[in-house]
Structure formats: structure tokens, C-alpha cells
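Predict structure. Input: Schlafen AlbA-2 domain-containing protein, 549 residues.
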Amino acid sequence: MMSENHVFEKKSYRKAFGPTADLSDLAKTCVCLANARGGTLQIGIEDKQELPPPQQRIDPEAANLLVRSLGGRAINVGLADPLVITSANGGQYLQLWVHPSLNTIATTSDGRVYMRLGEECRPVVGDDLLRLAGEKSGFQWELHTPHSVPEAELNPAEIRFFVEKIRAAPTNKVSPFVKGKSTAEILTHYKLLREDGLATNLGILWLGTPYQRARLRYGLLVQYMVYDEQERRIRKETWMDFRFNPLQLLDEVLAQGVELHYYHEVPEGLYRRQVRRYPEAVLRELLANAFAHRLYTVATDVAIRVYPDRLEIESPGHLPLGVTPTTILHERVRRNQALMDTFQATGLMEGEGSGYDLIYEKLSRDAKPLPDIDDSYSNLRVTIFAKAPNPTAVALLDTLARFYDFRQKEIITLGIIAQHGSIGAPALTQALQLRQEERLRSWLGRLVEWEIVLARGVKKSTEYLVNPKAYAAANLDVKPSLKTMEPHRLRALIEEDLRAYPDSSLAQIHRRLEELPLLEVRREVYGMVAEGRITPSSGGTRNRRYSLP
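Output follows.
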């Protein structure tokens, strides 16, 4: 069953036809899709349903009239390929393709602007409207040809380099059909050349000579700065001579940035294991994102700042409209489409939508803190931290990964839980950037089923912790902790506490078990009262005291 997302929407038959039709709402949906990336609109299928009602029929004339009516209510929106489709159960529905509005802003006929953000259609107003207008012009930078450079004047070595990368790419990134094209056809396919043979800005960025790249109004420039404990700059490297194409530039930055290769030594039995402060895959993905998603209509360089305790990568331009620091793990919005296509084909970055998934996975595997993302109107700054990982968490994750084939979501979730020892459902939901706690189930995956993770409590008071047996199975000598104590042992501890300190209040019990959150202690005490294992001895609801029977 295909669920609704940022490029797919379903609407009820009643929304489009008959006395309850709401064409204004349909027009708003079309505007939302057009201002994002375009998409498919299916009319005649109810929410949470995969097929239309078996007896439902779509009148072709009514469908044509609907398309014409939507064209008058949705401005700068292109509707194409209206099809009346008969489903497997015999029911019919209408399918429309909404073109993305690349150069203009789509609006409703009354001048309102909407955009599809995740699964929601939201109005765009104020500063967001200015951002949307800026991005519409930004989409086209890569395809402009202001310098009229023909293919014959480009750097032959760079052309060979790019084409060889394309033909050597794995088939999941470049199809055999594209690999079989001629050199000129490959360059045209990736929009480095226009049909008339002139190089686009993107073509000059990849294939140009240093002089030609320098003539780009806003090229790809990088500054690398190192700071001491007092945040005084002690070293600076710059790449402003336009010698390198994007892939070569990224490799050169990683090679020359010696501070990026520092590591921690983590005990591992009789030996010590080296864990990099900043995993190489994370660095490559963050730099590739800075190159790919930056605004190429802003005269600001990509800046890399290395401090003793953190690394900051700052690129010009904010996050694409529709993505925020608290949704970056889940939202999928591209800014420079053609540029990203070349980055993925040449192996410079991962596939669409997998960048931050990969970053979260690699940091979680090494028990490292997740990135901090600061989005302003003019710049995007991503910070990752050099904090030494918890050796126990690293050893646990390594051992479990040898015996279990974890999915990406599971290893991210397990890494977060292992670092915290014990984490509540609201905090875990926030760390995973989920809107609803109910969605935790898909991220926990099989961790609870396999009893690697224990869940105690219900709903919002649920606490997740690594099963102490998992530490034992990994031969890890872990100091007992109240946070990781199993519920039956915790209840036995509360009984021992009340045996030594009868007639104690909940606050007094918690004070003696201060490692645990108050909610955890309260839940166990209330449960023990319900089971008759302890009794309330005096006081009202707020000042009640407890003793053993």
C-alpha cells in the first residue's frame, strides 16, 4: 500500500465530483505539490485505502471539466497525463501528474501560496515566502550558460575524469544504458552541456579550466580554519585557485585537514582500538552536502572550523524550504537537482535522502553524539563533536553487530539508547525527530523482540534500556546501575529500602535512588501498592508514606 508523502496525494471522489465537491481544496493541493517537487494526485481513493470502491466510475467528460476548472483555480500549475484508471477490484479513479513550478511560484486564484512539507500542505507566508522565491531562482544557476563556453574549450583531462567516473560507477547509481552513451551524450545527459554544445555553469564547475571556473559568478571555494582552546585561530588553509573539480576538491580538503584524522583510543580487552573523532564517512557526507545544497547565488565560501572539542561546517544558504533542523532525518527536499545527480553518479555522495541517515548511523555505531544543526536565513552550520565515546557502548555495539543483521533504523536507535543507558519515550522520540511516539515502533524494529532492548512502563512513561543480559553476552564487565536494572530487581531494592527506612515518602525513596528518574520510581511504587507488596501507611495523596505489609 502506497502511503501519502511529499510527492503523492490521494483525494476522495466526493472532494472532486458531486454536490460536496471542494475544488478550492483540490487547487490548494495542486499548488502544494507544484511548489515542492511536483507529484501524483489520485482522485477517487479514500485516505488509508489502497483501492477505490468497486462500483465507482469516473465520467471522462466530468474528469476533463475538473482538469479545466483546476487550471483556473491554480495559477502557474501544470497538470498533465489525466488518466481514468480501472483498479484490480473494478473501481475507477482519476490520476493527474502535477508538474513542479521551477521558475515561478504557484498560487491559488486568490493569491495564496502553499507548499507540501512532508505529509502536510502548509501556507507559505512572511520570510518563508522570500525563501521560496530565492530558491526558485537558485534552482536554475547550474543550468545557465552566461559565458558561452563550447565543449572544445573545456579541459580535456576533466572531461575524461568525469566520463571515466560515470562508466565505472555501480549500476545502482548509473544504468548500463547511460554508461553506453558517447562522451558528448553523457555530458548532455548530466546537463553539463546544452544541446547546442555550450557548457552550463555546472559543466564549467566540473569540466572547466581554472580560468573558466574563476569566471563563475559564485564558484565553489573552501576555507579551513583551526582554533585552540581559547578559540584563537592558529592555522588556515584555503582552496581558492579553482584547480579542482568538486570531487577532487573534497578529497583534497580531507587529505590536507590533518586535524580531521585525530582519533581516540578505546580499551578493547587486552588491546586498544582507535575510534576517529570524526568518522570519515560522516565527514565526506557533510562536505558533499555543503557543496550540493549550498546556494550558488550567494558570494560566501564553505567554511570548515576545527576546535579542540568540535567541528563546524558552514555553507551559504539555509536549509531548503520544507526541511528544518528537527526534521532533517526524514524530509527529502533537493535544492540543486542536476548538481546532486552528478554527485551521486560519481560517488561523491550517497543516494537521494540517505545522507543524514548515513550520518546518524555512523555516529551511532561509534557511540558518538548526534550532529547539532543551526539554520539561519543566510547560513547553515552543522556541528559534530569530538567527545570520546563510551567504551562499553562501543564494545556492545560492535559485538551485537557481529551476531545480528541490524537495519539502519535499528542501529541508530540502539546507539542512542546505549549512550544514555536508559532513555524515556519522549526523549527518544525527540532524538529521532519523530512527530508521534507511536512511530517509535518502526525505529525500535526487532530490538525489543530480540530482547536486546527492554521497555518498562506504558505510553509516555515508557523507559527503554539495553538488556543487562546483552552486556553479559558480550562479556562486558559493566558496573551495575539503577538505570539498567531490571524491574523485578528494582522492586526488590525498593523493598530493602523500606525495610531499612519504613514509613518513607515517595520523595525520600527517590532521594536514596537518585540515579533513577522520579517517574520511574513512582511507577514501580504504585505498581507494588497495586500488587500488595507495599502499603500506604499514612498521609494524603500528596504526602503519602509507604511501608512493607
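Residues 60-73 form the longest helix (14 residues).
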